[in-house]
Design goal:
435 residues; alpha/beta; globular; carbohydrate metabolism; Metal-dep_hydrolase_composite; GlcNAc_6-P_deAcase
């Protein structure tokens, strides 16, 4: 696709989000969420929320009557050759033969379709469409390390976009408060300590839109910044750091609750120098991000991570602007990136520069390459990231809770192919998305 085609797709997705939330019925699916698997299931969504969930045609007819909605049209026979039906203002979707899950939630990603979340409203629209097409119905927009004034401008852009887009959850600052020795693909000239005045500037510019901040706790003012962020309703994350085991434990006690992309950009596990990972394993308050692309973390260690952090792995993409695109030359912030074989590296020194991963691929790999039970893989892309940001309950950001297929939860729904877990249908906030 051309850049213009990507941007046109972004406009189509945005238009879908702004449309009316008609009553919606999906029926005949294999329903999978963090609680398990249910066959021959249906969901009724009203006004952007899940109204009822059940199994079998009789219970669905009862739910439709209770809601004052028309019965299933005679022409609608799930699993037959009939297509989806719109009847009396209700959209009936034939989900027979498909997997039905909650929408995916990505709390760490930088862009897609040749656009970065750092580059303003139009770029956000297009990059969001890339990830929406792959099932990510809600997303935190990760902003790369830049001069503080630039980061403040980018935060204002995210805040502005949030006013009209329920799929944008807010911003994640990955830097500038990270360790030079673990900078990865971040501009070393922009790294700095989290002095109170700098933190004040960022929080003021954000106007409440920052969801998490990744920092190295060992930097000067690190623990003070963690406490300040936590008190401000921001989730501090330990990452891109040289912190040892004791320093990491101290960070968690100060309020840090996320370990940014576990195993990457941190000290490894050594029998005499445990490092951050064992500290996070011991602390049930901590969620561990994981990039499951088979490149950032090899499969045996992906499997190990799920064993070390039961119900606490949040699959993330760390996706950059080349996501959904061909190999070639791209940008990550101000730095040049070369993508070859789908792997992004800094052109200057070969350091890994984010990924080209999408969450549908991460979930598929968890099931088909790692052998994880399907409901555990789905949990890691839905309920766990929602819980990490306290969005698994009624909240002022999304209103309805996220992460489960249950009454009262947001109607964020995916129909996936059972063969490869590819996305066939996307519903966000009760609206069927044109992707």
């Amino acid at each position: 696709m051309s850049k213009e085609a990507y941007e046109s797709a972004g406009l189509a997705v945005e238009s879908s989000l702004h449309g009316p939330a008609h009553p919606l019925v999906l029926t005949g699916a294999r329903l999978i969420d963090a609680r398990g698997i249910r066959e021959n299931s249906w969901i009724l969504a009203l006004n952007g929320r899940i109204e009822q969930v059940g199994q079998g045609r009789e219970s669905l007819e009862s739910a439709l009557r209770a809601a004052g909605l028309p019965s299933l049209p005679p022409s609608f026979q799930p699993g037959s050759d009939t297509h989806d039906v719109n009847a009396d203002g209700v959209e009936f979707i034939d989900a027979a033969g498909f997997i039905l899950t909650p929408g995916f939630i990505d709390i760490h990603s930088h862009g897609g379709w040749v656009h970065s979340f750092d580059d303003g409203d139009e770029a956000i629209r297009t990059a969001r469409a890339c990830h929406m097409a792959h099932g990510t119905t809600r997303q935190v927009l990760s902003l790369i390390t830049n001069p503080v004034d630039t980061m403040c401008t980018n935060l204002r852009s995210v805040r502005r976009v949030m006013e009209s887009r329920p799929d944008v959850l807010g911003a994640h600052l990955e830097g500038p408060f990270i360790a030079l020795s673990r900078k990865g693909a971040h501009d070393p000239k922009c790294l700095r300590d989290p002095e109170p005045a700098v933190l004040d500037n960022l929080l003021e510019a954000a106007d409440g839109c920052i969801r998490q901040v990744t920092l190295a706790p060992e930097r000067d003012h690190g623990y003070e910044a963690i406490s300040r962020l936590a008190e401000s309703g921001v989730v501090p994350a330990v990452g891109h750091c040289d912190a040892d085991y004791d320093q990491t434990r101290r960070a968690f006690d100060a309020g840090a609750r996320i370990l940014t992309h576990v195993f990457n950009a941190m000290n490894g596990i050594h029998h005499r120098q445990p490092g951050p990972v064992p500290a996070a394993v011991e602390d049930p308050r901590v969620t561990a991000e994981l990039i499951n692309d088979g490149f950032h973390v090899q499969d045996p260690c992906v499997d190990l991570a799920f064993r070390l952090f039961p119900h606490r792995i949040a699959l993330v993409t760390d996706a950059m602007e080349a996501t959904g695109c061909e190999d070639g030359a791209y940008k990550l912030g101000s730095l040049d990136v070369t993508v070859k074989g789908g792997h992004a590296r800094l052109t200057s020194n070969g350091a890994i520069a984010g990924s080209t991963l999408t969450l549908d691929v991460a979930v598929s790999r968890a099931v088909q390459a790692i052998g994880l039970p399907a409901h555990r893989a789905v949990e890691a892309a839905t309920l766990t990231p929602a819980r990490a940001l306290e969005l698994d309950r009624p909240n002022p950001i999304t209103g309805a809770p996220l992460g489960l297929l249950a009454p009262g939860y947001a109607a964020d729904l995916l129909l996936l192919s059972p063969a490869d877990w590819s996305v066939k249908t996307v519903v966000c906030n009760g609206r069927r998305i044109q992707t």
